Amino acid sequence: MIRYFANHPTAANLMMLILLVMGIIALPEMKRETFPEFTARSVQITTAYPGASAEEIEEGICRKLEDAFDGMNNIDELRCEAREGIAIAVADMREGEDAKSFLDDLKSAVDEIDSFPELVETPTVSELNRTDQVVSIAITGPMQPNHLKAYCEGVKQRLLSHGGIPQIEINGFSDHQISIEIPTATLRQYGLSAASIANTIRNQNIDTPIGTLMGDEQELLLRFSEQRRTPEEYAELRVIAGNSGAELRLGDIATITDTFADDNNQIAFNGNRACLLSITKSRSQDTLTVYDAVERALEKERATKPATVEFHLTQDMSSVVRERLSLLVSNGIQGLVLVAATLWLFFGARFSFWVAMGLPVSFLAAFFFMQAFGLSINMISMVALLVALGLLMDDAIVLAENIAAHRARGKSPLQAAIDGTKQVAPGVFSSFLTSISVFGPLAFLSGQMGAVLKVIPMVLIITLAVSLIEAFLILPSHLNHSLSHHDPSESPMRRRFERWLAHVREDWVGALVDRAIAWRYFTLGLVVALFLITIGLTSSGILKFQGFPSIEGDQIEARILLPQGTPLDKTEAVVNEIERAALALNDSFREQQPQQVDIVENSIVRYGLNSDANESGPHLATVSLDLLSTETRNGSIPKLLNRWRELSQLPPEVINVSFKEPTRGPAGKPIEIRLQGNDLDQLKGASLELQTWLAAYRGLSDVSDDMRPGKPELRLRLKPGALNLGLDANTIATQLRAAYFGITATEIQVGIESYEVDISLSEQDRNQISDLSRFTIISATGIAVPLESVVTIEQDRGYARIQHVDGQRSVTVQANLDTRLNNSTEILSHTKKVFLPQLSQQFPQVEVVFQGESKENAKTGDSVLRAVVVGILGIFVILSFQFKSYREPLLVMAIIPMAVIGSFWGHLLMGLTLSMPSIIGLVSLSGIAVNDSILLVTFIKENIRQGMAPLEAAAQASRARFRAVLLTSATTIAGLLPILTETSMQAQILIPLVASIAFGLVATTLMVLFLVPSLYGILHDLNWTREVEPLEGKSDSEANR
């Protein structure tokens, strides 16, 4: 095949054209996003029980779900959260199970439960599919909330009709309802109850088909149409009709309004009531395409909107995707230019052009296969392509350099291309297989972090496989024609460079290699000592570790938590203080910004929301600030958060305000510790002790747990003798629930919205404990019985939220971390070693489990370790097969630990923290490092075959491979250099991975040239090298076949 393609006048060009066209066709179809998608592994079961407390939800729903799922062996972890009015259970699937079967099994188990409390609504079971935020549209204007919502509904429908916008959710309003409130005195006056009025409405408010009628000429449909849709229509509904013809209408006794079920969910944008259209995309859609569709549709909306209505784009995540991909593309282009310049320096213009052409050919063909396998263009896949930028050159450079060497011996261009390729083909193919051995297992990493990072080996394997085709079948043909038209040694500058390179090879490198071989045991001892010192950098804490590098975005938040039962007006007062502090924050940073612009662009307040609290109600709020982009602003996120916290003067009743950046990326929270047990008091006590311990660490802030007191409760119990009056517990509870919680009489459709018609006591009659005492119960005989005569009332207070994990109660303690001041790995390690033994003695029934970033690190770290072991075994098998020896592969593989030296010291030099991307880069480097080592050992054995003594063969092989080793390392580092020196905040996630490869490559380049020959000498001393049969009377061409 090599000879055929090298000699054929069109085959190589046609192959190249096919690969280019495949990529050009596939590239526009690839979706773009921030992080790669990963399969949903969790199912959520949501069950509403309106009005129930957390304890009632725990016993009535969570326990029943746990019993139903008991014995299902495809569940990895089951969490159930009980809070007022709702239970949310999440089941995580074990890795390797089928997602559809998992969902079906859970649905079947839920359907079989028949012991839920009577008022529990039907559970909904759904996959927790990932949806990515694209952008939000804030709509403000001087109109009533119900009119604003109606306008936003219209905008939503028009945007969706434009096409290209997949999902829009309206935020800022709860469900619409028609509220009917009746004074207690009126109910007493007419002997009515909320339940009886609900029945009256239900019976009179119908719209139903009742049959057909055959008319004289055609069939007629019969329909009874008595449905009401507006407050005015409900006001005319007859509640009582007397024999005399007198009627009592609903409007005579009730206040009827078109309102929202819960107005605590409102949103304010820059101080004005707003609705927020949140536009998201599914895993299969392109972020930038969706954003462009939003821009086009919004342009039409702006042309027809009322003058008083304003549209604002906010929470724009597409800009993050665009900026990061643009950054990677620009760095990739710079890297390509540097690679081409390096090649030109070694080979000359024409020769280096065809070597460099392997990059666009391999990349475009790789895009085709990436698209076929469902991979997207994202930060991680682009990093893989950046790494490949240097790696792809390895095979091409080895071939090109060897072809040039054969041409220099006087062979014809065609014969040089064929012989040069065939000589190194086994080594190049072995290098490819060793790379697959290393990268392949990394494609099966565990955990969410692993699901994201495993894209790197997948892309690298695809790209390397395509590059092998280009190197063996296309490149020799092009170099054949290049050598026929141009001799790169003719250039005066090239001759000077070659002379200088020869001087370095012989006088510097050669001399050092000779000394390293002569003092081979000292060389080995020196390298081992350096390796042990390097490992000591981590164990001593000089070089720190974190799971995933911090990624700065363009938003910060203040998440507000007050005690359960706090009214909305008190929450608004805290929000006003937080917003005042935000204005002061903007003023204090304005002068540092370019042209002194505002660093805070917008503020959004969302009442009833706090992502940390996992609760709902008027005691919660989140204030979000849109900031200048990371590339424009002066001021890091930690500085802004600390200053905002300092400027906020919070009242003492506030439980917690957490100032943080919304979580992005696959890693969990830096500090998240779960306490598990059965006794809530023990769990709370252990949590308080743990919070006190964590609060003492520098850099930790907003330490809190998720176990807080709920709303005060009044517990009613039946008095003896109540049954004598014809009143049982269910009768009393039903009437009280209808009066105080409200009862849904019916549900109607108004346009595209569904309205509930709810009946309750008027608000002024259900605000005081005294109102409850005066409440009367209507008996079965119609007698009004005072409530206090049939029940006792006791005060109590439970918990706002009770969390279960695998059937056990749990409390989660979490904190924010300033990574400039401390390291989560060190904090958790110290806590585990020093504090947890004390905690276990004090609370022996409480189990401690590390969650968040620590859990993800453990999951992914374990799978990385397994991948490394499998990869090293794979390398050993391949090399053992190639060298026909069990010992010589160890010589090649000895270079792998040496990559650690360059990587760790490179991190220290650049002030970086080790992270999981660093480890992935280091593991990837092990596949690269052995490539030069394989070819060097091959050349040593070739020299021995030519009749050289083993030590001389090692020294000469190192000299002979110096140029190729230097060139492959130089091109790889040149390709990575732009991203390594990038100052952009967007690049901070990429730099650790690139630093591992670049600095590790510097170390392995030196180790290959000096350590491998020394180790070969030591193996020879021990008589552990395989005997090589000398060549006698064979030409180079024959020997290389």
UniProtKB/TrEMBL annotation:
<feature type="transmembrane region" description="Helical">
    <location>
        <begin position="6"/>
        <end position="27"/>
    </location>
</feature>
<feature type="transmembrane region" description="Helical">
    <location>
        <begin position="864"/>
        <end position="883"/>
    </location>
</feature>
<feature type="transmembrane region" description="Helical">
    <location>
        <begin position="325"/>
        <end position="347"/>
    </location>
</feature>
<feature type="transmembrane region" description="Helical">
    <location>
        <begin position="960"/>
        <end position="981"/>
    </location>
</feature>
<dbReference type="InterPro" id="IPR027463">
    <property type="entry name" value="AcrB_DN_DC_subdom"/>
</dbReference>
<feature type="transmembrane region" description="Helical">
    <location>
        <begin position="353"/>
        <end position="370"/>
    </location>
</feature>
<feature type="transmembrane region" description="Helical">
    <location>
        <begin position="993"/>
        <end position="1016"/>
    </location>
</feature>
<feature type="transmembrane region" description="Helical">
    <location>
        <begin position="889"/>
        <end position="912"/>
    </location>
</feature>
<feature type="transmembrane region" description="Helical">
    <location>
        <begin position="919"/>
        <end position="940"/>
    </location>
</feature>
<dbReference type="Pfam" id="PF00873">
    <property type="entry name" value="ACR_tran"/>
</dbReference>
<feature type="transmembrane region" description="Helical">
    <location>
        <begin position="382"/>
        <end position="404"/>
    </location>
</feature>
<dbReference type="GO" id="GO:0042910">
    <property type="term" value="F:xenobiotic transmembrane transporter activity"/>
</dbReference>
<feature type="transmembrane region" description="Helical">
    <location>
        <begin position="424"/>
        <end position="445"/>
    </location>
</feature>
<keyword id="KW-0812">Transmembrane</keyword>
<dbReference type="GO" id="GO:0005886">
    <property type="term" value="C:plasma membrane"/>
</dbReference>
<dbReference type="InterPro" id="IPR001036">
    <property type="entry name" value="Acrflvin-R"/>
</dbReference>
<keyword id="KW-0472">Membrane</keyword>
<protein>
    <submittedName>
        <fullName>Acriflavin resistance protein</fullName>
    </submittedName>
</protein>
<feature type="transmembrane region" description="Helical">
    <location>
        <begin position="517"/>
        <end position="537"/>
    </location>
</feature>
<feature type="transmembrane region" description="Helical">
    <location>
        <begin position="452"/>
        <end position="475"/>
    </location>
</feature>
<keyword id="KW-1133">Transmembrane helix</keyword>
